[in-house]
């Protein structure tokens, strides 16, 4: 069902294209909401397979956009500086020796900006075997649900080796560890739980009534996602992810959030330049502050270079994209963790129709 009242022919064309994509990629379901700013804006939402456009889902690492936005808002209000050392906010004794080389502890050098941009050098706790012989990521993708405390996470990070001294890399090293720490920073600065802080500073002002931090093991509201054809039921893990990805939302709420982000409703537009200072991360990908840029080198069917896409994706298949050249926002989920590039493939399919 489209959000708008009228139904131009292109809406039917898009729904057919979404159905074909879902079938060709053998997806259980897919959701896509699209908003293009024109003199007469195009607004559409569709779904295929077992999902509906209104279905809540885990946004996983798209949550990093929400944390970034909240931290920038706190910066604008004079509550933090992004160049502040993490240990100036969090108790230094509790967070010592996370970044140790030889006998020297470089943890005091880690700034909020290092955490936001994945330049802290800290290892990813997802690579640690909390239970059994496999690391946490492998266990979860195998369907072995488990939870962990923040203290256990910190202990795991200390056992894993840091990759580089804080800020001393020309390439971002993606680690959920960074955003777990940022979640604690937000709680310390605001004096509220992460859920309450997001509710007060973002959800309520923007009317995001379907967005929340997942804390209830028995909450079956969000749609499951899949890996290797298997439905992943991971409530314990999702309650543990918290700031690194344990957030539920809908395509509609994600659309409102992203529009607010790029229209100055969350913080002044002047702040956008700082968050979009890109550092290489992987093939076609670079990272800013809590935000990803995707630039494909190949060309589209029309012979023109495919435009850059900025935003974020998550392991659940969730995505929230802005295409500046087309003034286009795309949000939704492909509900799978097999192919991390699948959300970009879906976005390109629709970009080429505009």
UniProtKB/TrEMBL annotation:
Keywords associated with the record: Hydrolase
Protein name: Serine hydrolase domain-containing protein
GO molecular function: hydrolase activity
The enzyme's E.C. designation: 3.1.1.103
Annotated InterPro entries: AmpC-like (IPR050491), Beta-lactam-related (IPR001466), Beta-lactam/transpept-like (IPR012338)
Signal peptide: none
Domain Beta-lactamase-related: 51-338
Domain of life: Bacteria
